[in-house]
């Protein structure tokens, strides 16, 4: 198997040996000062010299393995780069990274890629782990029963469709801190092994990437080129637009052709996620009405909220996103509402933040974090005004 080939290769390249009663073969073992003459019984000095260079051989073999793992599986590349820098700064005496060894590894990685999942574009890093996405949304996304159900159902159905007629377009709406960015990152990490760093994922933040309206024409050409390149490079692409309500209408026009109906013979798949604070007040009003009526928030249906949201978006004044082709031409497949978070949801976010950093906590500690947040409306103090957005920073108060 591959493991055996790697072991043989490392032994051939790195060499091995162990001290015994017979002298070691002639090779790269330099004579230490005061060492015994050739053929004499081994003494302490000679043993230490051999031990030192066997350590160098072991280190070299580890270097080869790190290089192979980086080349073939894309794992440990950052560590390999650091090790390479270290070798350049302080090389191991009498040993180097032979070019012939690197050539052998190139051959081995090419051989592995002939039947494994390797490619130049990153396309082979697509994993589409919908089961993991569903499990992580259930365990880590709090208070969003609608978003969990819609995202999993929409993504799974789209990826299982043999010939999708158009791109999948989801529009996330809700207050800041309710989980829109969190879900977008989770989708990326479960569809691609490299998550947001994948060559097949592009993230655009309106105020960061398109800050000046005077340069809209330049932005439009740039955006069109970047999306085209991503779609050409990857048979499945994910494009995320944060702060979508701030996108200029010309930019939305540039995006539109990539979402519209496509050739049935085209195997290209693309998913567009738009993240927006638009409609947050409408969502909150519905959630508050349910609470006042004594109904559980889990009884809020997608049909009710989606109708209210679409109506508000269509009536929104002076907003290019709300009045764009996306809504008028029904290019958005699902308008996904993110509900406001309550006190116990904030506590769950705090618990996750403590666990992520390996910091011990108690129920009293979680209560302290939640009580630091601002809750609205003024009378009921039911919903966190910032959702869970600042919770990770709040736990810094509890560091030793």
From TrEMBL:
Entry's Gene Ontology molecular function annotations: ATP binding; ATP hydrolysis activity
Domain AAA+ ATPase: 166-306
Claim: Transit peptide is one of the keywords in the record: no
SMART domains registered for this protein in UniProt: AAA (SM00382)
Start-end of Pro residues biased regions: 21-31
Residues spanning the signal sequence: 1-17
GO CC terms of this entry: endoplasmic reticulum lumen; nuclear envelope
Pfam families, sorted: TOR1A_C, Torsin
Signal among keywords: yes
Stretches the record annotates as Disordered: 18-42
Entries under InterPro entries matching the protein: AAA+_ATPase, ClpA/B, P-loop_NTPase, TOR1A_C, Torsin
Biased composition range(s): Low complexity: 32-42
Keywords: Signal
UniProt cross-references to PANTHER family, sorted A to Z: TORSIN (PTHR10760), TORSIN-3A (PTHR10760:SF3)
Similarity field: Belongs to the ClpA/ClpB family. Torsin subfamily.
Protein name: TOR3A protein
Naturally occurring in which organism (per UniProt): Sinosuthora webbiana
Lineage, top ranks: Eukaryota, Metazoa, Chordata, Craniata, Vertebrata
Gene: Tor3a
